[in-house]
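Subgroup meeting minutes
Present: P.N., E.W., G.H.
Scribe: E.W.

1. P.N. recapped why we're keeping a running log of single-chain structure predictions: easier to compare across weeks, and new members can see raw inputs and outputs side by side.
2. G.H. added today's entry (336 aa).
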Amino acid sequence: MSVITLGIESSCDETACAVVKDGREVLSSIIASQADFHSQYGGVVPELASRMHVEAIVPCISEALKQAEVTYSDLDAVCVTKGPGLVGALLVGVSAAKALCEVKHIPLVGVNHMAGHIAANYLTDPSWEPPFLCLVVSGGHSEILLVSDYTKMEYICSTKDDAAGEAFDKIARVIGLGYPGGPKLDKASKDGNPQAYSFPMPKMGDTLDFSFSGIKTAALNTINQVRLKGEDVNVNDFAASYQDAICSILCDRLKKAVKLTGVTKICLAGGVSANSCLRAKVEDLSKKMRLQLCLPKMVYCTDNAAMIASAGYYSFRDGVTDNLDMNAYPSLELGG
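Output recorded in log:
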């Protein structure tokens, strides 16, 4: 018998709701984005994001059910992002989910946002299943995880300082590309020379961990040196070179993780998995090492609720549900 899950996502600046069947088939996926609104401030304003979630959450739920052609009585579980993320934004989604579950007597499943991103691969490839290595890259995360089962994941390595997505966003602002920095940096890079500027590869000893603070500092120093000479930074060349350097670091660690674990299936997850340079490099790596590869569809790379409904399905299938006293956890780790 099929299991229908409603997913709710509100961890940052996207109010999203989706209905998914058996963790794989997306029946509807609604996203109310705030990106254009926050761009005038150069980044997400948490209080304003929370208020906009309040306005959008009920219409999003209603539209998701309508497009999926299901009713509340058809839902087997409501799956909601409980962390990590902006606490005020998370609370909107969590509160809506808890209220719905209380009134309609539906089981509640709290989902880790990053587990949701990993589940985006199940929505992309119906045959994709554990075990596999997943390179998770976003504005707040840079890590490689061994996914041994749908609900069992362990860290192989993580970042010691900045996340790759944050490093993209910071330099994008400095060279005048604005918000959201990552996608704009990627777009600018397409007309640039990736060998125009050089950046240092971090030396981490025997560890596989990432570090992006050094390369970010090197980029800032390069920009300042060029400007002190009275010259202009070639935005396209700089974007291409900086992006190539960071993606090379990510792929270098992924290659080492494959050799360390012997796992021959790899995939990407997180907002930065939409980056064209990273996707190309990971695809090239998979061909050279003869690995199975899953690249999440672009629509599932950024925040969405279909991935939350999928991840929640596998927890629900294992008998995991949450009580109505569940809270929002802005610093939630995988496994929490």
